[in-house]
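re: ur question from yesterday

yeah so i grabbed the chain u mentioned. its 118 aa long if i counted rite. heres the sequnce exactly as i have it in my notes:
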Amino acid sequence: VQPVESGGGLVQPGGSLRLSCAVPEFTSYHCGIHWYRQYAGKQREWLASFYIDGRIEYLSSVKDRFIISKDGDKGPVYLQMNNLKPEDTAMYFCRTTGAAVRDCGPYWGQGTQVTVSS
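ran it thru and got these structure tokens back, copy pasting raw so excuse formatting
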């Protein structure tokens, strides 16, 4: 099932946004959920992961500003982005991975645009 991202928009430098990745409860419970971003004309860059065992991982360059979390065991996965910088301007995507028997994909969402500008 394709994830659905939301929460992007235009924000000033230093501001914050919280992105949301919505998936069915079954998917949230059984699959890893990951955030990526893509600069125009570039490949997607992994940012953070929330695994089904509760482990969390971050790209080192964002770990001090971005926080990934999940609403309970079956809820959406969020990416809280703080102290945003113009270089954070990108399309942000959610991806699910995991066991094929759980229909974890991988599946990509359509993305949500984040623009950081004054």
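noticed a couple things. The first strand starts at residue 4 and ends at 6. also The chain has a mean pLDDT of 96.
anyway ttyl
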